[in-house]
Automatic annotation (TrEMBL):
Annotated MHYT domain residues: 10-199
TM ranges: 12-34, 46-70, 82-102, 114-136, 142-164, 171-190, 221-243
Record's signal peptide: none
InterPro entries membership: MHYT_dom
Entry protein name: MHYT domain-containing protein
Length: 291
């Protein structure tokens, strides 16, 4: 029996929340990558790792928030906790590979293409690994053509995001790029979900490991969500990202060219020494006053 698949159980709540989390992760990741480009003296590996973790957590959180709204009317759905956590690790690690390629090898068309393919395949792997964590009393089937389309969307979105990270420096333009990235990533998810059909088994038999969506996904989403908030605090209070490239350079240049001041001579008035002319009758010689 074919199951009735519904991806919008709670209406627009889960798609909108999923989109916002994808935008948040993308925005933080792009700003972290921009941070490594603005200053060569920064802790590059740390900022790239933070950017990769932000993008990976944003994509993973987007996926499972959207999956809260997924249901098959004829059967209950549960999730395998191990595969769910593994999908998060895959997202962060594979996105990190793409980010580090661009961060250390440059943004040439070849590097961007290779990093975009790797990152896009990682996003797709996270999605379908997360789908493998889904257990129900039935068989999940996929439309191969739609699956291929979702992978292409993931690769294009990842390449565009990496290109934006190394090309766009301004805050507002980075924000716009993250909004577009959120559309692409969320669109990839729902494109992949449109490929899903479920053949429900007869009867109510069948057992599987894992918890229900409400008991498993919500607590697991709390950790990545808190991480994204903390990453946002780090990015917001970084002086280079707050001031911008031009203001930071002007501040640094002023600090380098300003003459050093001795605190011992601060707040002292300049002294003026008046010398008497030699023809002054009261001029003193080394041997005493003249007679």
């Amino acid at each position: 029996m074919e199951g009735t698949v519904d991806g919008f159980r709670y209406g627009a709540v889960t798609p909108v929340a999923a989109y916002l989390m994808a935008c948040l992760g993308g925005a933080l990741g792009l700003r972290c990558i921009v941070r490594t480009l603005l200053s060569t003296q920064s802790w590059k590996a740390g900022w790239l790792a933070l950017g990769a973790a932000s993008i990976g957590c944003g994509i993973w959180t987007m996926h499972f928030i959207a999956m809260i709204g997924f249901q098959v009317v004829e059967t209950r759905i549960r999730y395998d906790a191990g595969l769910t956590v593994l999908s998060l690790a895959v997202a962060v690690v594979v996105v990190g590979i793409g980010v580090f390629i661009v961060g250390y090898r440059g943004a040439s068309p070849l590097n961007l293409s290779f990093a975009g393919v790797v990152t896009g395949l990682g996003v797709a792997a996270m999605h379908y690994l997360g789908m493998a964590a889904l257990h129900l009393n039935g068989t999940i089937r996929y439309d191969a053509a739609v699956v291929a389309l979702s992978v292409v969307i993931a690769i294009v979105a990842a390449t565009a995001a990496l290109w934006a990270a190394v090309t766009i420096r301004g805050f507002l333009t980075s924000l716009g790029a993250s909004l577009i990235m959120g559309v692409a990533v969320t669109g990839m998810h729902y494109t992949g979900m449109s490929a899903v059909s479920v053949h429900v088994h007869d009867g109510t038999g069948g057992s599987w490991a894992g918890g229900s969506p409400s008991s498993l996904l919500l607590p697991m989403l709390l950790g990545p969500a808190i991480f994204l908030l903390l990453a946002g605090v780090v990015v917001m209070f970084d002086p280079l990202l707050v001031l911008g490239d031009g203001e930071w350079n002007r501040t640094s240049a002023t600090a380098r060219t300003a003459p050093p001041s001795d605190p011992a001579f601060e707040d002292q008035e300049p002294r003026v020494i008046h010398a008497r002319a030699p023809q002054d009758p009261h001029w003193a010689t080394p041997h005493g006053p003249s007679r």
